[in-house]
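Key result, reporting period 2: structure in, sequence out.
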């Protein structure tokens, strides 16, 4: 691993000292947390009342770490698991609830955890196996949970979907693919507005829709170049491009395909991480230009896909310092997963051996200023709620906003993703729908009369 040397004057900063050990480009280390003797798997993020938390999957359970202060990462919660040597854990949140699954054999359970009392405590509001005992992957789209490779106490489903709208603590099963005679053993899935891209391992990719609470297959993608175990995917905000990885065998390139016609996907590009040798794992969408990928022994990658035919590494941070990146063997260690949607732009990552990393990808996400719109730096900040938002957010109209206002949502690439004019009345609360937006950070702007307003919005998916 290339050593990054800093002048001696900076050695009193613990973060700077720590960063010397890790090869990186345009992604900087903010802080680190580790529990000695514990092997880790997946992660997630959560924000509440101005504080930020990392959800970290450990062998023995789920760790909640307060990462608000970059100089003081500290554990504020732990939820024990019946399995003490788990190597798979996955998480998603909805409102103030955390959904935790594992795909390890043994005394396994599905857990729902209430995070609303953080930083004081966390509370398990459901723990059991009546809905399912094991699941390999969990994905949330709006108020629905998708579980891949769901194993019940007795029985198996390739993919099942649950409704959590009525009561988030009591998921209600809607459908399993077997109910509609569809063979789709989904190792992972990406769902948007009831269209599901299911990564089905050596059976390739399946494109399904859920209509009237029934599954229907509308396309597939198999026997493609560098095909292996189709692992996981993300869909571009415009719905045109799907980016996915193949996890087995080692060192296969990731792929970008055009899914404008889901029944006839077209190959667009293949690409690798910075060393060209690591096994690419889990991708996460940022916006219409960038995405983040967990790439095992090559660490965290930021990719620029503004040209989908020529996807490039924009920056990386290699958390796995046990092996030089140029000599990586492509094995399955290092970074399992990331969470790139904190409202301040930091990225959470978990290395299976080395623990929790919080990173700053700002340099990797820079683009030519001529391609960005200008956000008035003197704009008055407004409060929106909730933030993070899932389906919508609201703001209150003050007196100086009254009248016809020009509003826009701008992604972190500086591109306007939505703009509209609206008549505003003082004292009212205005609702802005966000269902059609990809997860990530946005700037919400209002221009009314001679006044400008803005707010940073995190869209949680």
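The corresponding designed sequence is given below.
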């Amino acid at each position: 691993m290339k050593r990054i040397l800093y002048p001696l004057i900076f050695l009193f900063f613990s973060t700077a000292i720590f960063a010397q050990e890790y090869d990186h480009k345009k992604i900087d280390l903010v802080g680190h947390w580790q529990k000695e003797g514990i092997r880790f798997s997946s992660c997630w993020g959560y924000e509440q009342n101005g504080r930020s938390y990392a959800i970290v999957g450990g062998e023995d359970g789920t760790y909640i770490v307060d990462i608000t202060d970059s100089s003081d990462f500290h554990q504020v919660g732990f939820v024990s698991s019946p399995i003490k040597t788990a190597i798979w854990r996955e998480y998603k949140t909805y409102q103030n609830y955390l959904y935790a699954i594992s795909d390890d054999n043994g005394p396994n359970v599905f857990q729902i955890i209430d995070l609303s009392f953080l930083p004081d405590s966390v509370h398990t509001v459901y723990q059991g196996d009546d809905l399912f005992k094991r699941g390999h992957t969990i994905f949330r789209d709006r108020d629905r949970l998708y579980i891949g490779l769901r194993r019940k106490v007795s029985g198996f489903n390739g993919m099942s979907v649950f409704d959590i709208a009525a009561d988030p603590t009591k998921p209600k099963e809607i459908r399993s693919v077997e109910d509609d005679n569809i063979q789709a053993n989904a190792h992972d899935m990406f769902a948007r507005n009831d269209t599901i891209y299911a990564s089905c391992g050596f059976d390739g990719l399946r494109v399904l829709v859920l209509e009237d609470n029934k599954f229907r297959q509308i396309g597939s993608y198999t026997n493609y170049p560098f095909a292996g175990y189709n692992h996981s995917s993300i869909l571009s905000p415009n719905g045109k491009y799907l980016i996915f990885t193949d996890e087995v065998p080692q060192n296969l390139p990731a792929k970008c395909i055009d899914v404008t016609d889901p029944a006839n996907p077209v190959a667009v590009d293949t690409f690798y991480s910075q060393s060209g040798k690591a096994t690419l794992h889990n991708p996460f969408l940022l916006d219409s230009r960038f995405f983040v990928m967990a790439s095992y022994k090559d660490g965290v990658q930021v990719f620029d896909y503004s040209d989908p035919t020529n996807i490039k590494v924009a920056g990386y941070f290699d958390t796995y310092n046990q092996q030089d990146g140029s000599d990586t063997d492509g094995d399955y260690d290092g970074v399992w997963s990331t969470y790139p949607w904190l409202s301040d732009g930091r990225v959470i990552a978990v290395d299976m051996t080395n623990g929790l990393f919080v990173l700053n990808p700002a340099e990797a996400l820079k683009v030519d200023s001529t391609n960005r719109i200008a956000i008035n730096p003197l704009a008055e900040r407004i409060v929106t709620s909730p933030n993070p938002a899932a389906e919508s957010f609201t703001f209150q109209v003050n007196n100086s906003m009254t009248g016809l206002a020009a509003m826009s949502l701008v992604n972190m690439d500086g591109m306007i993703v939505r703009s509209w004019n609206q008549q505003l009345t003082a004292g009212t609360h205005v609702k802005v729908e966000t269902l059609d937006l990809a997860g990530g950070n946005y700037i919400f702007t209002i221009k009314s009369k001679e006044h400008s307003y803005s707010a940073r919005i995190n869209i949680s998916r």
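The chain has one helix and 36 strands. Residues 369-459 form a domain with the Immunoglobulin-like fold (CATH 2.60.40.3080). This case is discussed further under Risks and Mitigation.
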